[in-house]
Design a protein that fits this description.
The protein is an alpha+beta fold. It is built from 3 helices and 4 strands.
């Protein structure tokens, strides 16, 4: 997770921020996702947990669109989603935010894949 913050791609879609890093994962899956909500903004654990639950459910709906062209052996990505807003979002807000982040992530995936094809090191 630390590598995602050091070397990962930063994607902003206020009030959601994502850090993504191409990395080998222990299972044959295209993505591994983590969700974080700051304790400073939401003191109560039930509020933080609700936001993370909403984001996980929205990600579950959205990731299939990103993974549709993925094949075993293709690059895998670790993604960390960080909620930086001040109010608890609705589920539709979470879906909208994750669609925006997924669109940007898809662009990054495409550019990273193109770079790895042109520079096979």
């Amino acid at each position: 997770m630390d590598l995602a913050f050091e070397k990962g791609v930063k994607i902003k879609a206020f009030p959601l921020m994502a850090r993504a890093l191409e990395t080998p994962l222990p299972h044959e899956v295209p993505f591994q996702a983590a969700f974080s909500v700051g304790k400073k903004r939401f003191r109560r654990a039930v509020d933080r947990n609700r936001i993370k639950r909403l984001l996980r459910e929205a990600w579950r709906h959205e990731k299939s669109g990103l993974a549709k062209n993925w094949q075993a052996g293709s690059p895998q990505w670790a993604v960390v989603f960080i909620f930086v807003g001040n109010e608890i979002p609705t589920f539709s807000d979470c879906q909208h935010l994750l669609r925006r982040v997924a669109a940007r992530l898809e662009q990054e995936l495409g550019s990273a894949t193109d770079e790895s094809r042109s520079n096979p090191s």
